[in-house]
Design a protein that fits this description.
- There is one protein chain.
- The protein is of the alpha+beta class and 165 residues long.
- Helix content is 21%, strand content 35%.
- It contains 3 helices and 6 strands; from the N terminus they run E-E-H-H-E-E-E-E-H.
- It has a 6-stranded antiparallel beta sheet with strand order 1-2-4-5-6-3.
- A hairpin with a 2-residue loop joins strand 1 (18-20) and strand 2 (23-29).
- The longest helix has 19 residues, at 43-61.
């Protein structure tokens, strides 16, 4: 397997996780730098784990952030329009986490993703994130046609179970 300068590969790379049953799963370890003075993961670090999950979900679909910079009508940028997070339980140093991402809505210039951070079978975080695509003037930009097909292939009709499930 070869990986070019942008980190793209023709083969699936485990580093980016995998999509199975329309759910992307990324495994991450908690390091000392992720924790606060109590040894628990600092609340803002969960946002970084969620971001990695969303970014690698898109990467596994073949939707690369670098393509936005060189788009015919570009450049374009992802923004987070809304984020709801339920902090259910905390993680600690050396825990191995699974970040799960499901696409629930994709249309026009925005998409909604449900995410969970799990430690084994325990839900630690449940989040719903609305992301949108904008141009350099800050105006909404419709998804590229090829992306709409990719999103359709993993679109979920029902929401991810919430933290109480």
């Amino acid at each position: 397997m070869t990986i070019d300068q942008l980190g793209k590969s023709e083969m699936s790379v485990e580093l980016a996780g995998q999509i199975t049953d329309k759910v992307h799963r990324l495994v991450a370890r908690v390091y000392f730098a992720d924790t606060d003075f109590s040894g628990a993961v600092y609340h803002a670090r969960y946002l970084e784990f969620l971001e990695r999950g969303r970014s690698d979900f898109l990467r596994c679909l073949g939707v690369h952030h670098t393509d936005l910079l060189h788009a015919e009508d570009g450049p374009f940028f992802w923004i987070i329009k809304r984020m709801e997070i339920d902090f259910v339980a905390s993680a600690s140093i050396d825990d191995v986490l699974s970040i799960e991402t499901r696409l629930e809505i994709a249309g026009g210039a925005r998409c909604v993703m449900a995410q969970r951070i799990m430690r084994g079978n325990t839900v630690l975080i449940h989040a719903v994130v609305t992301a949108a695509l904008i141009n350099s003037a800050g105006k909404p930009r419709r998804f590229l046609p090829a992306w709409r097909d990719k999103f359709a292939s993993v679109l979920m009709a029902q929401a991810m179970p919430n933290a109480q499930s």
